[in-house]
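Re: that chain you flagged

S.,

Sorry for the slow reply, it's been a week of failed gels. I finally had a moment to sit down with the sequence you sent. For the record, here it is as I used it:
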Amino acid sequence: MGKIGIYLLANYPSQEAFIEAIKICDKNGVDFLEIGFPFSDPIADGDTLEKACYETLQKYDFHDTVNSFREVQSIFKGKIYIMTYTNIVYSMGIDNFAERVGKIAGIILADLPLREIGPFEKGFKKHEINVIRFLTPESRDEDIKRAVKNARDFIYFVSKRGTTGGAFALDEETREKISRVKASGKEVFVGFGIKDSNDVKLACEVADGAIIGTKAVMELEAGINQFRRYIAGLR
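Prediction finished late last night. Pasting the structure tokens below so you have them in one place:
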């Protein structure tokens, strides 16, 4: 089986539950974390994560998010990525944002098109932070070539059109595109719709790993013991 990445929304459903979930991920050998910084208009997120963002923003501000994120950095031994939206970074300024969050493996900007990634990559490179590039089943040959060229970290392959959540499946054309990315020598992880060990196994037939988001958040909503059983059962 390939690598497993878990997405969790910072301070959701509470700061205490979030930090306990990080400890569980670390103890169970999760390979990397994708920590969501909540945003008021999360256009890439499905209903579950949109609701979670809204509820979190009612209780916690950016300062709270950063404080919890610093705690994550002290707990989790694997790679840590931040997932958020371009407007948060743009409004704060790349240098200010990078200095606030400290050392991370990379940043995932869910609404940043590949054609506009250059200035962000240049800005974050000064802080040794990689900007993750996306591909989708609709990506063309030239998109794939552009994405893998000079990519400094993994390629995030979105398994389907639309938002997070929903059912997971990989048609033959999508499998072929993922295989081409992997053949380039870049790591490629598949996300969107992955829910359980069977989905992870399916994704890893062609990719280097899988990212679980909505389902992980839903399990944590159900309680920390439920989340612990869920994470332990993924491999």
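What I noticed first: The mean pLDDT is 93.

Talk soon,
D.
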